[in-house]
Amino acid sequence: MFTGLVEEKATIVSVSKSAVADGETSDLRIQGEICCQNASIGDSICVNGCCLTVVKIDGSEMTFQAGSETLSKTNLGQLTSGDSVNLERSLAVGDRMGGHYVTGHVDAVGTVAERTNDGQWATFWFEVPNELTRQMANKGSVAVDGISLTLVEVLEDRFSVALIPHTLDVTTLGGRQVGDHVNIETDLLAKYVQQQLKRN
Fold this sequence. Notes:
Blueprint: E1 8-20, E2 23-31, E3 44-47, E4 50-58, E5 61-66, H1 68-73, E6 84-89, E7 108-118, E8 121-127, H2 130-133, E9 141-144, E10 147-150, E11 153-154, E12 158-163, H3 165-170, E13 181-186, H4 188-199
Antiparallel strand pairs: 1-2, 1-6, 2-5, 3-4, 3-6, 4-5, 7-8, 7-13, 8-12, 9-10, 9-13, 11-12
């Protein structure tokens, strides 16, 4: 479990892909400083909103393996050397909760539909599958590339968020432009409410 509060913007060192029966797998080698501290093999770390397992540690570099399902359902399959990613270590019992509960299970890939800059601030519109907006509400929470954000406006196939300068500076969203793909995870509570409504 995660909070959606990104601990660092890290860099992809290398991407090694291998063909398998149902597609391909990928080894992602990522260089980071904060999340590598006290990390152990087997730890769960959120990479662009996707929960991955540390399989190797070499100094300030960690290696993760992503299977074909992960690569096909997230933007991790598009990563190349030099790209930036958001990292967050899993939530420990007793930690302060600053964002919202993020599972690291990406629901879908969204697309940056519009970006409007206003000084150091920016408003983003993201296009997403219709079924996801049914789990969103104005002023509710959503995770975009693992970042906990507050929804400003929700329409049938898109939603908007307003980003402060700090978020633009310390996460990958600062470099996102129209047409870029992002990982979307809706609020866990909204999923349970929707499921209960289906049963009634």
